[in-house]
Amino acid sequence: MNAFAYDLTHEDWKAWMHKHDLPEWRGTQVMEWLYQKRATSFDEMTNLPKVLRSRLAESFVIQPLNAITTQVSRDGTVKFLFALPDQHAIETVIMRHDYGISVCVTTQVGCRIGCTFCASTLGGLKRNLQAGEIVAQVVAAQQYLDQEGERVRSVVVMGSGEPFENYEATLQFVRLINDAKGLNIGQRHITVSTSGVIPEIYRFADEGLQVRLAVSLHAPNTELRSKLMPINRRFPLPDLMEACRYYLQKTGRRITFEYALIGGVNDRDEHAHELAELLQGLDCLVNLIPVNYVPERNYVRTPRKQVFAFQRILESHGISATIRREHGSDIAAACGQLRAKHLEKLENTTTS
Predict the structure, then answer these.
(1) Would the annotation count 352 as a binding residue?
(2) Is 216 assigned a ligand-binding role in the annotation?
(3) Global pTM?
(4) Mean pLDDT on 48-56
(5) Does 244 belong to an annotated binding site?
(6) 218 is in an annotated binding site
(7) Which end of the chain is more exposed for a tag (fewer CB within 10 A), N or C?
(8) What pLDDT does 130 receive?
């Protein structure tokens, strides 16, 4: 299979041109066609010699994604189910906020973390995505928005998979979309979320980036967190909090803690007080997420009244807390649900 064009940085393109005895500025032209003009084929790159266009087409695939399904919610959320070249499927979501449009991208096909409230982990991990496959999700979203004259303002790496278990590709992705010759999305407008892979939190802190970090917490103590998130058995909560303190000290950047509220499980007043104690003294924001209903799971949503009560308790302890606005509730909003439905359909087709 040919390499993905979106895998290459600006420097990589210049090096490729140099290797093929061509002026390096041809690499800059290719970047402009890929990211500013969002060409879908090398034939569109009309200021490149025809021989070069043919050579590029023989060597690279521009868009490795093929849209299987595109769903549009009443609130303007757009959810894509993309087929990859090996026929695996991944999801990407466009979300509209008051501050602009964000895109949520996937870094792995499936997930092995095993969080009990998440649809992404159903079926386990199939493989890591290449950097170009992650970049292609943002480009595809931007191509969709081009029809409406709108622009991707921010990117959240919160789709299926654990980004820090695909660390190198995730970092390459960040560099590519941040590149001024690429999509030119500022690092402060990029958020990477982790379920708590401690070694990579330390590594990420030392990268010298201005990218935002979000940590999926979902419980105020290690016993409950181990029940909800098996990864806590590998990377216990006390050690995770120590890594977060290192990150804060090293970067000076506030951490967002994601907390999915599950009815009767982790949403009681005592959980809120315990969470506030855990986070005391940290420069952080708690993002409260009323859990999405997943048919394969047996969890229920926290009543709206209790969501606000939980937020008030945190704030009474001096912990900043927001409630995530729901996006796309009418189009299988939970991460991994659209892919799960697709896999179920394929399985039924195969067995019928």
Answers:
(1) no
(2) yes
(3) 0.91
(4) 97
(5) no
(6) yes
(7) C
(8) 96
Q: Which residue's structure tokens are 């996006």?
A: 327
Using alpha carbons, select from 143, 6, 131 the residue that is nearest to residue 78.
143
Residues 217, 284: Cα–Cα separation, whole Å:
12
**CATH 1.10.150.530, the chain: domain bounds:** 3-61
Burial 30-54 (b: 16+ CB within 10 A, else e): bbebbbeebbeebeebeebeeebbe
The distance of Cα 201 from the centroid of its chain, to the nearest Å, equals 16
Cα(82)–Cα(263) distance, rounded to whole angstroms?
32
Please tell me the distance from the alpha carbon of residue 301 to that of residue 321, in angstroms, as a whole number.
Answer: 18
Catalytic positions are: 91, 335
DSSP states of 321-347 as a string? EEEPPP--TTS--STTHHHHHHHHHHH
Topology of 66-351 in CATH? TIM Barrel (3.20.20)
180: helix, strand or coil: coil
* Residues in CB range of 56: below 8 A, 6 or more apart: 5, 30, 42, 45, 48
What does the alpha-carbon distance between residue 265 and residue 300 come to, in Å, rounded to a whole number? 9
